[in-house]
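Hi F.,

I've been meaning to write this up properly since the lab meeting, where we talked about keeping a consistent format for the predictions we share between groups. The idea is simple: the sequence comes first, exactly as it goes in, then the structure tokens exactly as they come out, then a line or two of notes. No screenshots and no reformatting. I'm using this chain as the first example so we have something concrete to point to.
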Amino acid sequence: MALYIGARDLSGFPLGTHQFIVITFPNPIALMVGDQVFATKILGPRLNGIVIGAHDRGTLNVEVFERGDTIAAKEFFGGSKASWSKWDYDAELRVVKFNGADFSLHGERKLISLVSAYLINQTLDPISYPTGGIGFNSNSWVQSAIEYSGGKVNGNMKGLDIYHKKRIPETYFLPFCPPNPRIKLNQ
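Output, unedited:
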């Protein structure tokens, strides 16, 4: 089991980079994220995983197994072939460390808890997606979730990954957080 931060080319726009999270497992399992149970998917030889990312749906929406993120993870882990003759996502993934270790059951559980809370909060108090990604975006969402779970990783991936250093306030990742007086982002 390992936790990764991933980066891929933006869909339809090769200049930018979109970040996402991958949690891998040696065997298939079901994992509850938010109020839904997701079965892992095969990402590569003898490797199953779950792929989570935030996306521009007018608001900063978290999605499990979004098509582009999942294809990029499969390309990286060998579950699908990239070809020189057609466009691919040029995925880059880095292992997230917890207290110097590649594996932390506590860290991964905390990450899932944070993501689950964000899923609730995104319906109660959504964050508007910034114009052109300039503001709190998918990259800042991934980096915030990793940091608040206790993970460490160099978040400056290859390519133009704007606002990967900008953190969404932790209150958006906490359960039972009332929308007032929460700071309004990207307004």
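Notes:
The chain has three helices and eight strands.
The helical segments are 67-77, 105-124, 138-148.

If this format works for you, I'll send the rest the same way.

G.
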